[in-house]
Amino acid sequence: MKKRYAFLYLVLCMMSAPYTLNAQSNKGINFQAIARNNNGYTIPNKLLNIRVSIKTDTNSTKNEYQEIAPVTTNALGLFSIVVGQLENNKTITMGPFESINWSKTEKYLQIEVDTLGDFSFINMGIQKINYVPFSFYADNVGAQNINGIIGLSQGGTGFDNLKELKEFLAIDKINNTPDSVKPISVLVANILNTKLNTVDTLKLSTRINLKLNSADTLSLSNRIKLIAKTDTSFLSTRIDSKLNKIDTVTLSNRINKKINIGEIAALDIMSALGYTPIRDDYGSFYDTAAQPAIVATATALKFPFMSLSNNISVGNNTSLAPTKITVLHAGIYNVKYAIQMLKNDVGADIASVWIRRNGSAYLNTNVNFNITGSGIKNLLTGSYYVDLGTNDYVEIYYSVKNSNSIPTGNLVQSTPSRPATPSVFVTIDRIN
Description:
The protein is 15% helix and 35% strand. The protein has 432 residues and is α+β, with helices and mostly antiparallel strands. Among the domains are: 7-139, Immunoglobulin-like, CATH 2.60.40; 282-430, Jelly Rolls, CATH 2.60.120.40. The strands form five sheets. Strands 12, 14, 15, 17, 18, 19 and 21 form a seven-stranded antiparallel beta sheet that branches. A hairpin with a 2-residue loop joins β17 and β18. The chain starts with 6 loop residues before the first strand and ends with a strand. The model is unreliable at 6-24 (pLDDT under 50).
């Protein structure tokens, strides 16, 4: 069950001096109290909601001003608020504070407290405000209530009769003498003497009279107006479309740096580079299917699929099999091959692999590989430089002594996920 607390209030302080808050003049009444529980012990470090109301009498339910302010007691149970002060965490439920008329009736301060934070307030009593209102009343004091003499620094005259005030202001010598017979000062007389008389401006007037009037220039104006405005429109358009000299400086410099067509030859490029540029020719071809061969028979490997290619292609042989790797440009090419050979039965075998160029065996390219049986995969690889001319082709040939030795690939594999393994694979690229 939640527990309510009772309060004992200590003191109602005098009104604080005016100060500026949020760019507005704001005054208030300082209020302090100590929070105690039902047993009389102070309540330290407690968050409370305090509702303060200003009334005209103790019995009235009508409030002239009311605010709700959250406070936190200190270690001694003490808290302070400034009634009427504008604060970000304060809620003004009736006001504003500046509208309270302190001059007409007595004022009473009612304090209510909410200890649970549910805005259920307990009335802690009402007390009369005795002295603070007089400072607020002084802000709007009526002139008829002033006793004594108000000094000059407070906006008064400092005197209580007209005679002494006129003497103080040095205007006691002023009388009702007509302006026409009043004397003038030396300074005014000097200024008047420097003014021009009518006769002084006669020469200027004569010059003005010699000037042409507006009507005198009518004929000239008409002649000017008769000039066709369109006569210069075409010329103006042409001028507007022209570039200024400075506009073309950058363009001229760029043009001057350009080389005319035909001024540079291939030899000039090779001389500047220090070597002869070669086109970028390459190709990558493969097959994933098994490619069996007849025992002791030269068999060309087929490459029906392409990975990448530039200026190199695979053509068909006389049996319409894709075996001819054909180049577009002459040059030295690096040919690399890889064959996955599988022999399912027991025992061993020998597989021979070599290169043919344009249908003839290419010198010193044959390699004999030992093949292990019993389902063991054997990898046969080779790399050679081959001199090829324009539209020449190469083929990769092999032979076996046992028909169970077959180039075999693998499909896409899992656990872990792996791509397919080609049965035969070849890359070819021109040396630059």
